[in-house]
């Protein structure tokens, strides 16, 4: 296993002890968190940095369940696994909330250059792609980027295969390059279909220079999905096409795809609760998602999120007393195919979302957390700041207090007004593996995973035990209850 | 494109100028190389570090020809490309020497875990593998390493698929880990067949932690090749099998392979000569190989070697006069499948190998050269040392003077007594890409390729123009001529 520079957390215990001594002398600046809470936070942090639990959970999920496409039999096995895990770890309440979803499978795909010479191209069907009704062997029409294909008129691409190139995604700590790069994956098919293309190929959205193309869901247009095959080519294969195009070679490609929609099936969210000791109806929600893309075992996306949040909650459960509020771990189902579990949760709990005091999701891999951002009632910002202070020895800085979004599966409840925070992971190499066959267990650095658990345990515990209320107009709401 | 630390050669020209001034004042220690030769060497080095030619050659070969399996139509196109290139670049003599070879193709391969659950495994057929006569779906018998399977007796593996695990190859600058790791690829099948296995899977030989398995030729046993499918699993897939095995899960795998031998076909070596001005019959041979494995465009293996050696010779051709001896660039055919071009060359030129004064091959990727080793007449070691001194500003150290082997395709002629040197490249990440679908142009760092060209140009020029004779009993031989 090889990855870029790995931060070492050896000697963390000593660093923490020193850091806490410092915090102690400045107690007045953080008196929103009392001495007992600080001691518990320190204990959680130290235990988390020594615990292998999160890694063991990811290892178990990826090894014993394997790939777990939304709606598949494997995702069902993952739910059963999640229930069993929750019970074994002693959560107070374990439940599954099922929902129905449309099921798409990629089937088989073969893509090969057929002129100027035969060469297999490494490609993956995008989520929602159609099949090839006949095997396609057709000239390629090259588009430099999504903007170029937007001008295509009806019939312009009849009998052709469109290829949208574009540049290699810019890697960054925040993952900021993903959104722009991803647009061609989302809506490119709409232009290709309008033009009458037989199929669409796009340059892979990922930042990797390996021959693993990046899959992911397309966007439906007025509830309609692509009827033609839509595939991503790995970056080296896209480079090759670009070079051949620049040489002026006549390019042809053959595409055979059996992707299809298979009707409605069941998925579900698994919910593990640690019931609060004083305000059990109030919920601090930490989440990951249980489904993965089908081409890999989803260690980074999102086995890591499951491991981090479950292990963090388990450490909190081992404290002498439960925090005041309920801590809820949600293992969302069917995230990859459109946040279906998240929308199902928000719908089912619509009448109780006002009791969701704070929500966040770990769904950005397994590298270290470097920043805490939030979007809560401004009156409670000081408490988030104080939590941020406690997290400093883990190498975490306090970011903006007006940053919406607590993770993909938090979007539906955030829209309904649930306050959010995010413990931002270093995403510099996340899109080298994300949504590719290469998202496997060996990509996780155990020491970095532990830092994540420490941050989640401390944050969830302090938020659940805090006096502050993070909700907008919190007082009005609690009077209404 | 992302790769580990890249050495910068910016400012090389100035560093060279300073280095040469130093060498100048110590002229007496290197008087085996005269002032004119030193000036020419410096000019070659400076030009090479500014020249894009080698990269352009690799780009052309990998883009315009693509993958070029030994014996294939694509390898024939590569020979035509090589001839055209040699003529365009103004070599004095361009020729092709054809030979006949048995042709193996991998066909289609599907490998998937079928118990405890269904998961596609990323696998590649090893060169010489047999096909599955019926589709195989059978229990896996796990062997920790090659030693373990060596004890298998006839019938022990009837109805089973053997899996030889082993550890991840140790990466190193010299590539020393490859030989030991490779043994299971070479001879594992012989044990599996003896045991009556339906098929053999081995852990990929490469050092990469990506889901690209490493292909490569097996060894025949008394002219017999494997009759069963023999495949390598990517390291993450082998990890997964190992974990499942340790959990005690009953493991089953399905394998369908259409690999086959297709009878005899033509391959060939392309030879580009710069004819020597004083001793044209004496040959300094620098080589790469033209064929690649079929799953990638073979940029590192061995497009780079072709680019480096052709560009180096072209720079020498641009000097005001030809060096005394002939410089021969050989683009060997069919290297990957058993050094077939190299054996054909040694056989065809058997009566003239005594005129091969020195031989070497670039076939270890495209990273910088760090060491010069040799195996020549001890009387000529001082001249090799002097060449090493000239190479120092490129960051190259002088290694052993008793190190046999000038590269794979040099083996047959070295066995016949041809003296060899090797300009050793940094192989730390070579086996992350070698023999995988990921051996593509983006893995080459242009600045590092230039350093290779500089070293080859200087070395080939000085060896061809040197007074010293590198051959064993050189005098006796020249008297015989």
TrEMBL record, chains A, B:
Cell compartment(s), UniProt: Endoplasmic reticulum; Golgi apparatus; Lysosome; Secreted
Single Gene Ontology BP annotation: proteolysis
GO cellular component terms, A-Z: extracellular region; lysosome
Keywords noted in UniProt: Carboxypeptidase, Endoplasmic reticulum, Glycoprotein, Golgi apparatus, Hydrolase, Lysosome, Metal-binding, Metalloprotease, Protease, Secreted, Signal, Zinc, Zymogen
Molecular function GO labels: carboxypeptidase activity; metal ion binding; metallodipeptidase activity
A Pfam entry, by short name: Peptidase_M28
Keyword Signal: yes
Record's signal peptide: 1-25
KW GTP-binding (keyword) present: no
Top-rank lineage group of the source organism: Bacteria
Cross-referenced InterPro entries: CPQ, Peptidase_M28
Ranges of residues in domain Peptidase M28: 269-454
Subunit structure as annotated in this protein's UniProt entry: Homodimer. The monomeric form is inactive while the homodimer is active.
Protein name: Carboxypeptidase Q
Organism annotation: Glaciecola punicea ACAM 611
């Amino acid at each position: 296993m090889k990855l870029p520079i790995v931060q070492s957390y050896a000697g963390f215990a000593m660093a923490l002890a020193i850091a806490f001594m410092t915090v102690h002398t400045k107690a007045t600046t953080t008196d929103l968190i009392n001495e007992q809470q600080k001691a518990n936070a320190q204990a959680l942090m130290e235990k988390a940095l020594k615990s292998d639990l999160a890694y063991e959970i990811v290892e178990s999920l990826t090894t014993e369940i394997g790939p777990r496409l939304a709606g598949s039999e494997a995702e069902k096995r993952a739910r059963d696994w999640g229930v069993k895990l929750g019970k074994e770890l002693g959560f107070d309440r374990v439940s599954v909330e099922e929902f129905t979803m449309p099921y798409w499978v990629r089937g088989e795909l073969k893509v090969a250059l057929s002129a100027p010479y035969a060469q297999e191209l490494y490609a993956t069907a995008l989520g929602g792609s159609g099949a090839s009704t006949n095997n396609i062997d057709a000239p390629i029409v090259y588009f430099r980027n999504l903007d170029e294909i937007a001008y295509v008129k009806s019939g312009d691409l009849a009998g052709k295969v469109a290829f949208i190139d574009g540049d290699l995604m810019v890697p960054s700590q925040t993952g900021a390059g993903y959104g722009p790069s991803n647009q061609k994956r989302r809506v490119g098919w709409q232009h290709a279909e309008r033009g009458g293309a037989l199929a669409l190929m796009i340059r892979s959205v990922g930042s990797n220079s390996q021959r693993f193309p990046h899959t992911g869901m397309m966007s439906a247009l007025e509830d309609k999905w692509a009827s033609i095959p839509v595939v991503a080519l790995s970056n080296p294969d896209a480079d090759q096409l670009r070079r051949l195009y620049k040489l002026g070679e006549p390019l042809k490609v053959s595409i055979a795809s059996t992707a299809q929609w298979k009707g409605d099936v069941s998925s579900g969210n698994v919910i593990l609760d640690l019931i609060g000791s004083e305000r059990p109806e109030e919920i601090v929600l930490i989440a990951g998602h249980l489904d993965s893309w089908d081409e890999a075992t989803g260690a980074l996306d999102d086995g890591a999120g499951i491991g981090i949040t479950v292990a963090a909650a388990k450490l909190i459960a081992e404290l002498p007393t439960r925090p005041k509020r309920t801590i809820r771990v949600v293992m969302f189902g069917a995230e990859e195919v459109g946040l279906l579990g998240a929308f199902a949760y928000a719908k089912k709990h619509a009448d109780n979302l006002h009791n969701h005091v704070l929500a966040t999701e770990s769904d950005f891999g397994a590298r270290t957390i470097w920043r805490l951002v939030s979007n809560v009632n401004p009156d409670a910002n000081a408490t988030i700041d104080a939590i941020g202070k406690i997290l400093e020895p883990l190498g975490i800085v306090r970011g903006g207090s007006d940053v919406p979004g607590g993770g993909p599966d938090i979007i539906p409840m955030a829209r309904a007004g649930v306050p959010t925070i995010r413990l931002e992971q270093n995403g510099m190499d996340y899109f080298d593996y994300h949504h590719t066959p290469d998202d496997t267990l060996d990509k996780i650095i155990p020491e970095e995973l532990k830092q994540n658990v420490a941050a989640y345990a401390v944050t969830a515990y302090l938020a659940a035990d805090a006096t502050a209320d993070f909700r907008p107009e919190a007082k009005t709401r609690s009077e209404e209850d």
